[in-house]
Amino acid sequence: MKTNLTDTLEAFRGLIILPFFENESEIQYNENFPHIQVSKNLFSGKKDTQFLLEDRNNSNIFLFVGLGKEPEFKDIQTAFRRISAKQENLFEKQALLVLTNEMGSTLLEAAVSGLILGTYRLGYYKNPESLVKDWSTINLSIHTPIENADFLAQKSRKIAEAKIETFYMVDLPPNKITPSFLADWAIKAGKKYGFDTKVLDRKKAEKEGLHAFLAVGQGSQKEPQFIIMEYRSKASKKHFGLVGKGVTFDTGGLNIKTQGMVHMKCDMGGAATVLGTMQLIADLQIPVNVTAIVPCVENSVDNQSYLPSDVISSYSGKSIEVIDTDAEGRLILADGLNYLIKNYNPDSVVDFATLTGSAVGTFGYECAALFSKNQDLLKLLQDSGNHVGERVWPLPMWDIYKSEMDSEIADIKNYHGKPFAGAITAAKFLEFFTENHPSWAHIDIAGTAFGDSEFAKTKHATGFGVHLMLKLLENI
């Protein structure tokens, strides 16, 4: 879907989208279309309501969209995503979005990004004849008095495009999205958008001493890939670090999963978040330096798989007792975090990972678990998430939980083996490899990266974290 601004409305023919805030007495109609009126008994702008009207004089279709009284960003975005996702027959060659004076930049950003997100479809391997709509031929015109509207519209389009890339990476099957695929994606995206990419394969990772990372992938024939991306801005005053868990499929290893394995293609949701974020910040040329690490492996099962009770080394030089081979994400993150901090020393570090069922048990599917001892970073992450509807909420990082990860034989064990505090103890494990970095946060997106919604009949990607990180990086 292409976007542009327009000043003239008279000659437009097609779908005209008119959003309204709720008004219990009478909605305020757009002055550009005085002849288009609807009874308040039929439409009052209530949240999640619509009203369709056809102008027989010129064949224009007017779609009234109710936003409610004080809609949040995510509510607006979902309302507009619903249009292109479920009413694609209304879009022929062009559509027109008309915003009034009281509809500011937040509404514009949410509406445009929502309409573009709604063009995403899961049917990658369906017969092409069943995918009727070619959205690249549809033009979205925007009429608005908002200053910098063209910049905001283009920014919104780029946000949606980056999130769709994360959808793509998480939703495609694991025989397509392999560690090598993600490495190739990072190289191509770097060349297209403007960041440097280096990839360490198995031999190079062995030379670097990334032993915990390699242990997880040694049961798979698919080559592990340790992806390093660097985005640099001459205007930057901060250096930010990102790490994303990239387990492209997780069988659980020899501690094989007994349920839900069909969804484990989503276990690289943290990697997708970081890769999508790198595309977005480079595309928008955000004035901040970012170094991102994405360790990518497949946790499979064969005679080379690492074993429960193995003691493995790590990039940090610290030894790890393997209690459970299904606690594998924290092992590759341990090497990713330590490598980033030791070699690049960023001012702040955030990692994203679909790490624990415990986070899902605590927050369900609407909020990610947030861990940090840095109160400034904690607040900035919460505020950024609240603004764009990607909520995070803190859990304690008290050192009393540290003893849960003590090992008799090694420096630390990878799982405490108890049915409580799973997300917290996982965070304490990761903290062990951060070199006491003063500004580090861990975000467990196990419940928010992949799930059910009205936009598909099966579980699918959400792109959680990409927009959150953009908001944060715009404000540090």
SSE layout and pairing:
Layout: E1 2-5, E2 15-20, E3 50-55, E4 60-66, H1 73-86, E5 94-98, H2 105-117, E6 139-143, H3 149-171, H4 179-193, E7 196-200, H5 202-208, H6 211-217, E8 225-231, E9 239-244, E10 246-250, H7 269-284, E11 289-299, E12 311-312, E13 320-321, H8 329-344, E14 348-353, H9 357-363, E15 368-372, H10 375-388, E16 392-394, E17 412-413, H11 422-431, E18 440-444, E19 450-451, E20 460-461, H12 466-475
Helix pairs in contact: 1-2, 2-3, 3-7, 4-7, 6-8, 7-12, 8-11, 10-12
What does this structure look like?
It is a single chain. The chain has 476 residues and is of the alpha/beta class. Helices cover 32% and strands 20% of the residues. The protein has helices spanning 73-86, 105-117, 149-171, 179-193, 202-208, 211-217, 269-284, 329-344, 357-363, 375-388, 422-431, 466-475, and strands spanning 2-5, 15-20, 50-55, 60-66, 94-98, 139-143, 196-200, 225-231, 239-244, 246-250, 289-299, 311-312, 320-321, 348-353, 368-372, 392-394, 412-413, 440-444, 450-451, 460-461. The strands form four sheets. Strands 7, 8, 9, 10, 11, 14, 15, 16 and 18 form a nine-stranded mixed β-sheet that branches. A six-stranded mixed β-sheet has the order 1-6-5-2-4-3, covered by helices on one side. It has a three-stranded mixed β-sheet with strand order 12-13-17. It is elongated.
